[in-house]
Amino acid sequence: MLTYKSYVKILFFILIGLIISAIFYAYYFTKNYPLPITGRISFDAKITFIKEHIDRNKVDTIIVGSSIGLNNVQGAVLEAASQKCQSVLNLSVYEATPTQIEQILELTNIFPHLKRIIYSAQYSDFGYAGRLQDYDPTFIKAYLSDTLTLKEKVSFYFHS
Fold it and tell me: 59: exposed, middle or buried (C-beta count within 10 Å: 0-12, 13-18, 19+)?
């Protein structure tokens, strides 16, 4: 027969187990998957890649546009062939429209040595004027600059 005390203990251990599981899963998720910052997996993966692998102080050229239109534009080839471009960053987004590129360009001020922006577009990019949903450039800048507070990080990780 289950007494009140043992019932509360079991319930308490179950709840603690669920909370610990949620914390471990959130940690695992943040280390192994791109965090859903914008709701577009390819752009989220790019943001995560920039945070983890790109020195923002070295970037002097950014390529923006629709990733479909940028199939033959390669940053590494541009760096090697150009006398002016030293560090090229591709910020293209799948099926990006001009209004979405305008939103993405709000991130340019986190690259202190940026000198050039190359915008590659194709006719189909101008089909509609949709905007990126769930796009918060202030949050993305703080995320890339690693200036989020602990509370903001924990909240973001658990929201993810």
Answer: buried
